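Show me any protein, keeping tokens residue-aligned.
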Amino acid sequence: MPTHALQAEDLRKSYPTGRGKEPVRALDGLSFAVERGTVYGLLGPNGAGKSTTVKILSTLSRADSGTATVAGIDVTRRPDAVRRSIGLVSQRPSSDPMATGRENLVLAARIQGLSRADATSRSGWLLDRFGLTDAADRLVRTWSGGMARKLDVAIGLVHRPAVLFLDEPTTGLDPEARAEMWSEISRMAGDDAMTVLLTTHYLDEADKLAHRLAIVDHGKVAVEGTPDRLKSELRGDVVQVELETADEAARAGKEIDRIEGLSDVVSDGNTVRASADSGARVVPHVFAALDAVGIEVVSATVARPSLDDVYLRHAGRAFEAAGAVA
């Protein structure tokens, strides 16, 4: 049995953009490995290369170079075997809105090779598990967005895959539907011992669900580890100061950098962030230093390090500024 459920080594992929133009490099040497039975998060802003990675691992695209295996199977040499081992929930809906939920699931099961009896039984079980039984015989176009997204996940699970790819599974869902999806993803990894590769641009989602995660930036892994370890490596507190303009933030950053007890000072847009052993002690010094040079502070906060701070440390800019918010 393979040591890793998923493994990518030095994946590179570019897309042509037109005659005379430089191709867009989606992946630039991306590498990571995923243990069996875990939720592994690929966290990064839109355009970081997450979906391209999923397409390569699920055999929907080929890398220009590098290697990848899924359940110990080489994705280039044996794509058919990979497809039988995986479930894929892409960003776009996979169900037919003009069919019922039950019809969608039975059809997906039959396509995956289940007998009619097994397809019917498996579909009923999944509808019950996802709380969709009451709506099972209604057309999917009458369902809520959260219900339809649950059906997409159920379709991905219909043939009991060893590895499930969830590509931005909660985009567009309301908070209640997101929470329900989070609960189901945790249950799949815990109760079912399934390996889940989750791509997301939601910091809280990666923090909540991923046993381990890789922060992806410009087509490569910037840093990898458990969410807690990545945050704990940024010792102390994070002090964030908001200014009126980016120009004032740049000026403020130079002043704050001179204050004893602060380090890793970074100006980003109209905010300045810095690390401190004791944020509460240094904040008064920040106000005094900026007031002395005529810089007005809009707000100042002290918090424990977050994944946004991890991203800032390793990518050199805040997550939202990198394009995380579509």
